[in-house]
Design a protein that fits this description.
The complex is a heterodimer of chains A (about 200) and B (about 350). With about 200 residues, chain A is mainly alpha-helical. Helices cover about 35% and strands about 10% of the residues of chain A. In chain A, strands 2-1-3 form a 3-stranded antiparallel sheet. In chain A, helix 2 packs antiparallel against helix 3. Chain A is globular, with a radius of gyration of 18 Å. Chain B has about 350 residues and is of the alpha+beta class. Chain B is about 50% helix and about 15% strand. Classes of the chains: A mainly alpha (about 200), B alpha+beta (about 350). The complex binds zinc ion (2 copies).
Amino acid sequence: MLCEKCQKKDANVSVQTIINGITESHHLCSECAQQEGLFHSGFGLENLSMANNIGKTLFNFPYSKLGHAQSNSDALTGTRMTCPHCNQSLSDFKQTGLFGCPQCYESFRGMIREMLDQVQGDHLHRDSRRITQDKSDSSDSPIVIIEDKQEKSEQTAQEKLKAELQEMIKQENYEQAAIIRDRIKELEKEDQVDESE
Amino acid sequence: MSWYEKHGPDQDVVISTRVRLARNIKGHLCPHLLDKTKTNQVIQEIVDGVEKIDPKSFRLVELESLNLTDKQTLAERHLISPQIINAKNNKALLINEEEDLSVLILDEDHLRIQAISAGFEPLETFDRANKLAVALESVLDIAYDPEFGYLTACPTNVGTGLRVSALLHVPGLEHSRQLKYIIESLRRSGFTVRGYYGEGSAEQGQMIQVSNQITLGETDQDLVNKFIRMLSVFIKQERQAREKWYSEDPIRLKDRIFRAKAILSEACLIGSEEAFNCLSYLRLGRALGFDDFPDYPEILTLIYLIGRGSIQKRSGKTLAGEKRDEARANLIKKHFVEINNSRRNHYDD
Ligand SMILES: [Zn+2]
Ligand SMILES: [Zn+2]
């Protein structure tokens, strides 16, 4: 399948959006996806301590581009993704810095993952009690799914593990994901030690 | 006996340790979106839930039914955040007799389970809050996601929902001008540093609050342990700074401390800022082991009594500027007399 935007390269990123309850799938090449900001959220980390700044930094999140709006049109106009449980949109969130309901995390799962990586440095909760519990109560399908099907040829061990980690999270195998994530952290620590010596 | 009348570990530097666990109930809107009917419904649901697991320990305080002074008093004791004093919607607080375990209902989240201890006691304080949080999961449908953990209104609290904080008395580091560098390094290591009354407040009476910033990605226990490791270093640094100060400049330091004591025991008018600063020196005098200085719980009790809300609550009416300063001075004087009398009685025994 060709990329919807440039109509030249193969589409290897698929984006699913739900706008006012209507589901749409889009297929882009990785360059166009990057241009659309799907991989670069532009969160600033400067003002972490103030909760509301996260709402403000979220303003920079290119969620408007997840819809079918033209890439050069004004952000936010015409697109309004809402959580089906509380009817709040991400632009409501960016005003208050607060989600409308706990289920918003399911509704905006893809974007929240990326946001938490910026805000908390991670998006995978580690629970000292439930880490071995089964995953039967895992949630509904997320509203936004961004898949990168591109195969990278030269991957470091860390990159491989990170890809594996994403896969485990996608499969909702959180127990395995936590183990892999620990391994990545160990590798990162080793790297730091190597550098300092 | 209230928690602040008790002694705690490392109390020469750490005034109190607090742990807060944020939780929400699945199927309800977050508090800022609830209408009046729903607000009272959710409060009732949580009150009923707590009653099921512990019918005796807690009394219910509905913020709607309190006047401004009462609410200020709760904020001065860190039981509610100052931001919610003027909130439109009703909120509630379930609190035990010792005032060391409480559930704040419909602040930013549906529930905030709060535990507090005197001194530096993160593990024990966490355990107490966590026990209540775990028990509540059996009676309330707490919003939990296997990927993101406990779901909170603000993404800065998601995951563990855990905020562990300590209120530290740091005159030594402030005097040696090391404080700002230590605060910077704490911030770089993922800790939040704030003034005595929380977000946005000035550093008052050489007291600062330190808490974890990240709430997700590490287990609650790892977060608490990391906090202990970090703060233990900080506590040692403060002690060293005090020793150095006292060994290098004993007369001027003693002069400040004894002047502060004299002001507290003799002044006829005293504003809250001056009182706060004097109590800070009084505390330092106690830490340096000077004779006849009030003990830590007595000083903390005074700190809690001299707040605007507390002063007016005691006198039963709203007091304007100078009247309030007079009431404050009288209250402190009275306490000094009581403390000295109880000492004397103690020696007579
Ligand atoms: Zn393309
Ligand atoms: Zn929602």
